Amino acid sequence: MRLLQIGLGIRGTQWAEIIKDYPDATVVAFVDRDAAALDHVRKVPGHDGAEFFVDLEVALNRVEADAALIATPSRLHAEHAKQALGAGLSVMVEKPLALDVATGLEVLRQSRATDQSIMVADNYRYWPAERTVRALIEEGRIGRLDSATLVDRRNMPSQTEGPWLAEIEYPQLQEIAIHHFDSLRYLFGEQPVGISVRVWNPPWSDYRHGANTEAMIDFETLRVSYLGTMRSHSFSFSLWIEGELGCIWTNRKYVFWRPVGSRFFRPVRLVKVPAGDGERYPRGGTTSLLDSLREATARRLVPETVGEDSIWNVAMVEAGKLSDAEERSVRMDEVLRGDTLTVDADRVDHSQ
Questions:
Q1: Which domains does the chain have, with CATH numbers?
Q2: pLDDT tens digits, residue range 84-122?
Q3: Contacting residues for 121 by C-beta, under 8 A, at least 6 apart
Q4: Cα(206)–Cα(203) distance, rounded to whole angstroms?
Q5: What's the gap between Cα 303 and its chain centre?
Q6: Is 146 helix (H, G, I), strand (E, B) or coil?
Q7: H helices present in 53-164, as ranges
């Protein structure tokens, strides 16, 4: 698979390293507006023969590629995805697919018009703990679900991130919570019905807006309480799921189950995932993502994280912004308005 990689910021540079170790893909060209970023990757061994461009249109016209990997700032995702699709490439874009539903739907329509696949790099759902929790829920280990509580704490001062992130509105909701929203949809196999969101900054925050997010999410059969912060003093994650027959808890490293009547949690053996998916960030889940892009490109299979599914994550963020701005709960049909596009379920690739 000949890849055109667009974007060489923090995540883009990580992808450049990851792809070097992936046997079924070669980056034939890198694109970034920052010549210094291109020079940095140019000096790193492992991408011999790749070309380097500061202009995406020039790269699309000069380079023969099969697929594009987009890791530019979020505001550029939709624009770059449409350009790559228009050039006849299948696309994997870092989350979010777009900043709002209307723009995301434009990308999906471009995907259909060009008959090229677009997927989103939602890697969390491929981690062993998430695969394990999903399997426990599917087998009915805790019966009917009632509620879940997710708390994600991060020590992410703005100087450790891309400089654009500190200046945008809703950085935690748009850039971090969207990952968790995708995870929740994946774990429960349901779509959200409504969401209520409140964001704020701690007094020591170096972000302009919204380093903390609190949300209450109504799914079809259960309710989720969510808290995420980028300005904690350490990193920690906790997901507690309550069911009729017990509860499940995970910190994304381990999974525990406690049946009704038991005083103690019991460890659960993690399900086996493809080599590489179980590694720590930034590599966790990337093997399955690249496998999915390969299969979408070569065999026309529909990726698990296809854009038509990931538009729901965009909608949750958009509804969350509206909820915070108007201080009210927002129904999902207020932002989706029946405009979702579907895919043939029989063609979705669940091999990972």
A1: 2-123+288-305 (3.40.50.720), 128-272 (3.30.360.10)
A2: 999 999 999 999 999 999 999 999 999 999 999 999 999
A3: 92, 93, 94, 95, 286, 289, 305
A4: 9
A5: 13
A6: strand
A7: 56-62, 77-86, 101-114, 128-138
